[in-house]
Design a protein that fits this description.
By secondary structure, the protein is α/β, with parallel strands linked by helices. Helix content is 45%, strand content 17%. Helix 2 links the parallel strand 2 and strand 3. The radius of gyration is 18 Å and the shape is globular. 40% of the residues are buried.
Length: 297
């Protein structure tokens, strides 16, 4: 595989103006622009000016009249991909110019690799709350890099995942899955695939700007191991989710050194989200209310 062909797919429900910036950043990729970019719309028609803008940029827009959820749209994208590689991302993510090429090179360098994930970094914070919750992003990255040589679910962020197409098409992906990125990580492993994080492939995502949205994301994560254990009964997912104490301490000390005030404040936010899950546990549901604060144009 010298120059792999690449399909990029974006599932979307809300279709905010941010998706135009996402698609523009992907088409600006160098030296490897996408061969195909598919926007799979989930039951909520795009505003005419947004659809026109996407098509002008070169995206293929597929409207699905019946809402199926994010996993249904991801499955549609995977089924439509005919290229060597397929990359799934979200409608509020910005790609660094070389991110797509860097992801592709991971597969060129390792013929046995079947799945990789980009290094998701927060965009420049606008609010104080964003700066606080960014600590969680940094902690996750620090912990993931020092656990199992990076082969763990922490580094498989659904904001940008890449697959060898002929491998991912073997996956069984129930459409009711809520935590799709972790599911894809464990399904890749069940199918005999390998994963490695592409640390140099940088993509950017805005952090939630409200406690309500952050709490919702946190509850999804907290429910993940119980949800996925039903799909992978042969695996000990509780062990797979148990980040070693030494890794946690190392990540926490590194972040405390880098962002001391935000780190201390984040501990309060972290405790609050865990308390709210005990007091108001979230039930798993296929259709979650869309985050809006991350999708500002």
């Amino acid at each position: 595989m010298n120059r792999p062909t690449v399909t990029v797919g974006i599932p979307t429900y809300y279709g905010a103006p941010s998706i135009l910036k996402t698609v523009a950043s992907i088409f600006a990729s160098t030296p490897l622009p996408p061969d195909r970019l598919i926007v799979s719309v989930d039951g909520n028609p795009l505003q005419p000016e947004i659809q026109a803008g996407l098509e002008t940029l070169g995206a293929e827009v597929i409207f699905n009249a019946e809402r199926g959820g994010q996993v249904a749209r991801i499955k549609q994208i995977l089924a439509l991909a005919t290229t060597d590689l397929v990359v799934t991302t979200q409608d509020d993510v910005l790609f660094a110019p070389d991110a797509l090429a860097t992801l592709a090179n991971e597969f060129v360098d390792d013929p046995g690799l079947t799945m990789t994930g980009a290094n998701v970094q927060p965009v420049q914070a606008v609010t104080r709350f964003e700066k606080i919750v960014e600590v969680g992003v940094h902690l996750t990255r620090r912990a993931g890099e020092h656990w199992r040589d990076g082969d763990n679910y922490l580094l498989a962020s659904g904001r940008c995942l890449a697959f060898r197409t002929n491998h991912v098409r073997q996956f069984e992906i129930p459409e009711e899955v809520v935590n799709s990125d972790a599911y894809l990580f464990f399904e890749n492993r069940r199918r005999g695939g390998s994963f490695r994080s592409a640390a140099e492939a940088i993509v950017y995502n805005r952090s939630p700007q409200t406690m309500a949205e952050h709490e919702k994301q946190s509850k999804r994560f907290q429910n993940s191991v119980a949800e996925l254990a039903r799909y992978f009964p042969e695996a000990d997912l509780h062990a797979d989710y148990a980040v070693p104490a030494g890794v946690k301490v190392r990540a926490a000390l590194g972040e405390l050194w880098a962002h001391p005030t935000a780190m201390l404040t984040y501990l309060g936010v972290f405790g609050y989200t865990r308390l709210m899950q005990l007091l108001r546990p979230a039930r798993e549901k296929r259709f979650w209310k869309t985050d809006l604060s991350t999708k500002r144009a």
